[in-house]
Design a protein that fits this description.
Strands 1-2 form a two-stranded antiparallel ribbon. The chain has about 190 residues and is mainly α. Strand 1 and strand 2 form a beta hairpin. The radius of gyration is 27 Å and the shape is elongated. It has six helices and two strands.
Length: about 190
C-alpha cells in the first residue's frame, strides 16, 4: 500500500480529511476481520471479509492518489513562486558592491582547514541570529522573507559540511563567504 506523503500536505488538510477517513476505514477492516460472518449475496457462502477488503483497499488507494496529486500540484506552484522570488532577489544582490579581493585575502590568511571551517560555522550562526531577531520583530515582508530563508538554507547546508569536515573547493568557499556577507549585511541593515 502507498503511504501518503503527509509532509507535502497542509496540516489542517491532513487532520480534517485524511486522518479521520483512514481511521474509519481501518476500524471497519479490523471489525470485519474479528467478526467475519458468512453472508449470501450473489454467490452463496461468500464471506463479508472477502467483499469488503478489496472495496476498502480500493477506496484508500483512490483517496491517496487524489490527494497526492493535489498536494504535488500545490508544491510545484510553490516552487515556481520561490524561483521567481529568488530571480528577482539575485538581480538586487548583483547591484551590491562585493570586495572580492578582501575575501581572497582573508582566505589566504587562514592558517589551516580547521580554522577555515570554524570561520564558516561562526558566520552561519551570526546570520541565523540576525534572522531570528528580525522574525521576532516581524519586520520582514513576505517576499524578502522567502528569499532570505532560501539563502539561509543554502548557508546552513554549507555549515553542516564544515561541521562534518567535508572539504570544499577554494572557489566554493569564496562563494559561500560572498553570499554570507551579503545576507548578513542585508539582515543587519533592517532595524
Amino acid at each position: 500500500m502507498i503511504s501518503f506523503p503527509r509532509f507535502i500536505m497542509k496540516k489542517k488538510e491532513f487532520l480534517i480529511i485524511v486522518l479521520p477517513i483512514t481511521i474509519i476505514i481501518y476500524s471497519i477492516l479490523i471489525f470485519v476481520f474479528l467478526f467475519d460472518k458468512k453472508i449470501e449475496f450473489v454467490m452463496p457462502a461468500t464471506s463479508i471479509f472477502e467483499i469488503i477488503i478489496p472495496v476498502m483497499l480500493g477506496l484508500i488507494l483512490a483517496m491517496q492518489f487524489s490527494l497526492y496529486g493535489r498536494a504535488m500540484k500545490r508544491r510545484r506552484k510553490e516552487i515556481e513562486e520561490l524561483k521567481n522570488q529568488l530571480s528577482k532577489y539575485k538581480s538586487k544582490v548583483k547591484k551590491l558592491k562585493i570586495n572580492e579581493e578582501k575575501i581572497k585575502k582573508e582566505l589566504d590568511n587562514q592558517l589551516n582547514f580547521k580554522d577555515y571551517n570554524y570561520s564558516i560555522i561562526k558566520l552561519s550562526f551570526l546570520i541565523e541570529n540576525e534572522l531570528q531577531r528580525l522574525l521576532k520583530k516581524k519586520k520582514v515582508d513576505g517576499e524578502k522573507l522567502i528569499s532570505i530563508r532560501a539563502m539561509s538554507d543554502y548557508l546552513s547546508k554549507v555549515r553542516n559540511k564544515a561541521v562534518h569536515g567535508v572539504k570544499m573547493s577554494r572557489s566554493g568557499m569564496i562563494d559561500y563567504v560572498k553570499v554570507g556577507e551579503i545576507l548578513l549585511n542585508i539582515l543587519r541593515s533592517i532595524k
